[in-house]
Amino acid sequence: MENDRLNSDRITRDYFDSLLIAMRHIDSQIPDTGIRLFGKKFSMPITTAALSHLNNTTEDGMKKMAEGAFMADAVCFSGMGEAAELKSMCDTGARVIKIVKPHEKNDKVYAKILEAEEAGCFAVGMDIDHAFSGNGEYDNVMGLPMRPKSLEELKSFVESTNLPFIVKGVLSVADAKKCMEAGAAGIVVSHHHGIMSGCVPPLMVLPEIKKAVGSRMSIFVDCGIESGMDAYKALALGADAVCVGRAIMGPLKENGAEGVRDKLLSMKAELMSVMERTACVKLNKIDDSVIYHRNF
Ligand SMILES: Cc1cc2nc3c(=O)[nH]c(=O)nc-3n(C[C@H](O)[C@H](O)[C@H](O)COP(=O)(O)O)c2cc1C
Q1: pLDDT (tens digit, 9 = 90+) per residue, 195-237?
Q2: What are the φ/ψ torsions at residue 286 (nearest 5 degrees)?
Q3: Does residue 120 sit in helix, strand or coil?
Q4: Ligand 1 centroid to 23 CA: how many Å?
Q5: Number of domains the chain is built from
Q6: Distance 55 CA to ligand 1 centre (A)
Q7: Which residues pair with 292 in a beta bridge?
Q8: Which residues pair with 242 in a beta bridge?
Q9: Domain housing 151
Q10: For residue 183, what is the domain's CATH number?
Q11: Verdict on whether the full-model pTM lies above 0.85
């Protein structure tokens, strides 16, 4: 099914680059990128994405990613992994959001939610888009069987924990509405780095999702975010915050925690530079009125 014309990552990159920004200098000043998420303050609306298996990138990669996020005063998402690794991430002082896989057996899901609570995570969630294998079967991730989850099951996960629950892998208004009905505190609008070919770019569907959701859930966006400019475009189209995955892996490999910190800080600086040149002194002043779609 995969072919280059329908490569979701490439289409997503093209869409980012098709969005252009008008400048507004009058009445502008140095902006503030501070954000409150689930009652906690952070210095930027840029988080590390729900990565996993970063030992393939560098030793203790997940812990180093968390250290980098902590040093940059940013939220740190975590993907699949064992309890000890998660604890080592939380022990860095980072505010960690654990994304649990849609395991076939809900007992396993509840056990992973408990692990997140015990490790000291700040929120927990599930990547609902890892349910199918892409060849007509249910997914199996490294020997672990997966299943799609119903609205009722999502409700039961939300109700099982006092932590805010985030649903990752939402790429439609239909699913966003179900997440709201389930009582989720947030969603990650994502196609999971092209889990299916021909996916709509997250930023293309984001305005409709924002319209449906309003401010009832926090909206995170990932896939292809590499720069402060990309982050700005996502925020302008309705995101509260963005998650950065593959773009921090190079800096992590080269410079460990400091590499992650520096990448996040340079993205924050670039976000500030676009905010100041569009007279958006606070995050809530960023909107789509400066966005133009290249069509020439
Ligand atoms: C090495 C690697 C491991 C990942 N592991 C997970 C995971 O365990 N859980 C999850 O929800 N997403 C996982 N993801 C997906 C990311 O969270 C993210 O959705 C995706 O990479 C798109 O963001 P990006 O373009 O910034 O990389 C992983 C991605 C990468 C590259």
Answers
A1: 999 999 999 999 999 999 999 999 999 999 999 999 999 999 9
A2: -80, 125
A3: coil
A4: 33
A5: 1
A6: 14
A7: 20
A8: 46, 221
A9: 37-293
A10: 3.20.20.70
A11: yes
